[in-house]
Amino acid sequence: MQTTGITFPAEWYPQSAVQLTWPHEDTDWAPILDEVVACFVEIAREIMKREKLLIVCQNEDEVRSQLGELDETRVRFVEMPTNDTWARDHGGISVFDTFGPTVYDFVFNGWGLKFSAGKDNQITRNLFHEGVFADRIQPANMAPFVLEGGSIESDGQGTLMTTAECLLSLNRNEYMQREEIENHLKDIFGLSRVLWIENGFLVGDDTDSHVDTLARFCREDTIAYVQCTDPADVHYDELQAMEEEIKAFRQLNGEPYKLIALPMADEVIWEGERLPATYANFLILNGAVLLPFYNSPKDEIARKALQEAFPDREIVGINCLSLIKQHGSLHCVTMQYPEGFIE
C-alpha cells in the first residue's frame, strides 16, 4: 500500500498517448537517418492503431511526409528544438497526487553529463507551454533531482524497482546518499518500498544500467528479466547474480514473484562494437506490447515468453537493429501518458 495519496501508475494502466521525439539530421542518427526513421514510422503506426501519438519534432511537414496518410484524431505534432530522441529519459513522468493528475519534470542531463541535453531537458516544460496536456494536469518542476524514466519501474501499488548502478552514479544526484535517494523517491512517488538491483549490465549501455534494459514489471506479481545461460558470454556472472537477486524479491504479501526469463539477445556488432541488444526494452500499450526484435531466432522465443506474461495483449515485434546502433531500443524512445493526461 502507498504511504501517501500519491500513486505512480504502472505502465499497463490505461493510456491516453505515447510520446515519440523524432530523429532529424542534427542528431547522432544522421549517418543512418533513413534507416532509423523507418523504425520510428513502424513504431508510430503501431501506437496509432491503439491510442494517440504525440510527436515532438523539428519539422512537422517532414515527419508527415515520412508517415504518409494519417488519422488526424490519433496524432499531435509539436515542433521544438531537440538534441536527440530518447523520450523515455527526457519525457515527463506521470503520477496521480493529492492535487490530481501531475506530470513530473525531472532534470535530464544526458545520463550523467555524458552527452549534450540542454534542448531535451526543456521538452516537457515546452509541451506544457504548447497546451499539450489536459487542462487539469499540473506541471511539477522536480529540479535539482536528476532522474530518467528508463531507470525506474513501478508496479502501480507502491513498489518501485531500480538499479543501484544508475541511481547511485556520479553526475546525477551524488550529493545524496542512498538512503536519502530512496526516501526522496518514496516521498515523491508515494512508495512503500524500493527494490534495488545491485548486479547486471549490458555491454555498450550508456545509461549506467537502466532497469528497463534488465528487468520489468509485467503485473503486480510478475517480473520479466534478461537471463544469460552462456558461461562464455561476458554478461554471464553479472546476470546470473541479478537473477538470484530477483528470485529473492518478495511481493508485498510475502510471496515470491512469478518470473519470466527473457533470452539474452544474440551478440550484435556494429563498427567493431557490441551493442546493448535486449528484449527487456518492450513497451506496454493499450491492448498490446511492442517487443524489440533483432533479426534473430531468439525473437520468437522472447515473444512466446512475453505472451505468457501478457496473455490478453497482442505481442508485436518491431525490428530495432537500427535503434541499438545508438545504444538504446524500443522502450527508450517512447514515453506513455495515462488515460486523461492528453486529450
TrEMBL record:
Hydrolase: present as a keyword of the record? yes
InterPro entries reported in the protein's UniProt record: Peptidyl-Arg-deiminase_porph
Q: Which Pfam families does the record cross-reference, listed alphabetically? A: PAD_porph
Give the keywords, sorted.
Hydrolase
Q: Which Gene3D superfamilies match?
A: L-arginine/glycine Amidinotransferase, Chain A
Query: Which PANTHER family does its entry note?
Result: AGMATINE DEIMINASE-RELATED (PTHR31377:SF0)
Q: What is this protein called?
A: Agmatine deiminase family protein
